[in-house]
Amino acid sequence: MGESGGSIIRTAGLGKTYRSGALEVQALRGVDFAAAPGEFVVILGPSGSGKSTFLNLLGGLDTASAGKAWFREQELTGLSERGLTLYRRNHVGFVFQFYNLVPSLTAVENVALVTEIARAPMRPDEALDLVGLSARRDHFPAQLSGGEQQRVAIARAIAKRPSLLFCDEPTGALDSATGVRVLEALTEVNRATGATTLVITHNAAIREIAGRTLRFADGQIVEETLNPRRKAPSEVSW
Questions:
Q1: Cα separation of 40 and 49, whole Å?
Q2: pTM over the 0.85 mark
Q3: For residues 148 and 205, what is the distance between their CA atoms, to the nearest angstrom?
Q4: What's the Cα-to-Cα distance from 63 to each of 22, 132, 191, rounded to whole Å?
Q5: CB 3.0 to 4.6 Å from 124: which of 36, 82, 111, 114, for a disulfide?
Q6: Which residues lie closer than 8 Å to 191 by C-beta, 6 or more apart?
């Protein structure tokens, strides 16, 4: 089976069970999902609902216990460790709650790290410009605010021109005003690059900037909402 209805990534019955001694924890239970190229999807749910596990499986950071996942025509759940590494390197950009920048490198050098191994990267300055940080290119992480560091992390994630941009609590460590600037960077990147963007958050206010919202509970998608009118990040506060 390949693409269904023009989806760029999809899953069928995707499940993940973690074993700890005699204890089994079902983190994900039979999830069916598909995203179209260029979509902006917000994933809501409390801690332990399975949303991070889901994103890690889609991103090739973890392997499924059950079900299947596809990126375009490629079955991710059938790939070797090497295959998953190549998939992540060539197609997926990640943004996490904590920025994971290299402290001894400037903003532009942090972004350049990724472009050195990418197949057809942006120039690092172009990526920084997309997130509104051209003026801070030569600053070190310690000279940048939390929101600026997160925007450098977004620039780093998109500099390799990924088809998929996966963000796990990208505003989790930020106040509302700073978080809005990070969301503006994500919506601009989504618009400018066409990367299919999935954003995990426990913050229900953020759902208003998405084209579609999924809500996870107990390892399953329990609600899916289409947004008739996406709000601009500047219209959102929490």
A1: 20
A2: yes
A3: 21
A4: 20, 35, 30
A5: 111
A6: none
Q: Are 91 and 163 in contact (CB under 8 A)?
A: yes
196 in Cβ contact with 36 (< 8 Å): yes
Other C-beta atoms within 10 Å of 190: how many? 20
Say which residue the tokens 């947004």 belong to.
227
Contact 79, 62 (CB under 8 A): no
The pLDDT score that the predictor gives to residue 1 is 35
Query: What is the second-level CATH architecture of the domain 9-235?
Result: 3-Layer(aba) Sandwich (3.40)
Query: Rounded distance, CA 117 to CA 62, Å?
Result: 22
- pLDDT confidence of residue 3: 42
CB neighbour class for 104 (10 Å; exposed up to 12, middle 13-18, buried from 19): exposed
Closest CA to 164 of 55, 3, 237: 55
Q: How far apart are CA 142 and CA 70, in angstroms?
A: 39
Tokens of 84: 């998953």
Q: Which residues of the chain have pLDDT under 50?
A: 1-4
DSSP 104-147: TS-HHHHHHHHHTT-SSPPPHHHHHHHTT-GGGTT--GGGS-HH
Element at 191 (helix H, strand E): helix 176-193
> Cα–Cα distance between 24 and 27 in angstroms, integer?
9
